[in-house]
Amino acid sequence: MDIKELQRIIEEVVTSMMDTKHKRVLLVHSHTAISKKQVDVLQSYCHVEEWQANDTTSHTQLFYDAIVFLEVDQAFIVSSAQGLPTTPAALYLSELLVSNQTAILIPNEKLSAVVTAKEPNPYMKMLLHHIERLKEFGCDIQLFAQLIRFIKQQQEPTHSGIVANYVTAEMLQSYKGQQLTLPAHTKLTPLAQEMVQEKGMTIQRY
């Protein structure tokens, strides 16, 4: 089996796993009362799977529209920003970032107060510095309400084009336009990149 045939098979698997009606979200949380309620809320908006610390399966962003860490606290932020994971969840985040994958971090109530502070004190500024470092590494920090709005917007796109976490060559075969409008996070598989070049298509991000 040559490399292109292998890529074609992978693309077919990816395409088959994409749900056009509901976003696939992997949730990482500590199963607190608050995070469990948040899981219940998210289940009404998207297809939810929960990460388990003892799960040896390699969960990559390839199969999810988003990987979300709920109820993130100060210790998680600081240790992750310093590259010193102290929990299984923090270690999983470090593995994602090392492999150039992204994650959405939802701060808990205390950390949310820091994120939204209009006049942060010196200690808050230190925490905000660590948050900015995580953003540089590929994390997106959102309040829970912002996450819900983000998912709603993804389900009702206002831009014309393909909306998916990955774009495959199979998707592009039926695409008639010369300009492809894609979300900023969407990636193209190797075969899709070749097809874009062959067709002379341009890509616009939003």
Average pLDDT confidence is 81
**Helical fraction:** 40-55%
Q: How many extended strands?
A: 9
- Helix and strand pattern: HEHEEHHEHHEHEHEEHE
What overall form do the CA principal axes indicate? elongated
Percentage of β-strand residues:
15-25%
Question: Helix and strand layout, with pairings?
Answer:
Layout: H1 3-17, E1 24-28, H2 33-43, E2 47-50, E3 66-72, H3 74-81, H4 88-98, E4 103-107, H5 109-115, H6 122-137, E5 139-141, H7 144-155, E6 166-167, H8 169-173, E7 179-182, E8 187-188, H9 190-199, E9 202-205
Helix pairs in contact: 3-6
Describe, in plain words, how this protein is organized in 3D.
The chain has 206 residues and is of the alpha/beta class. It has nine helices and nine strands. It has helices at 3-17, 33-43, 74-81, 88-98, 109-115, 122-137, 144-155, 169-173, 190-199; strands at 24-28, 47-50, 66-72, 103-107, 139-141, 166-167, 179-182, 187-188, 202-205. The strands form three sheets. It has a five-stranded parallel beta sheet, with helices on both faces. Strands 6-8 form a two-stranded parallel sheet. A two-stranded parallel ribbon has the order 7-9. Helix 3 (74-81) crosses helix 6 (122-137).
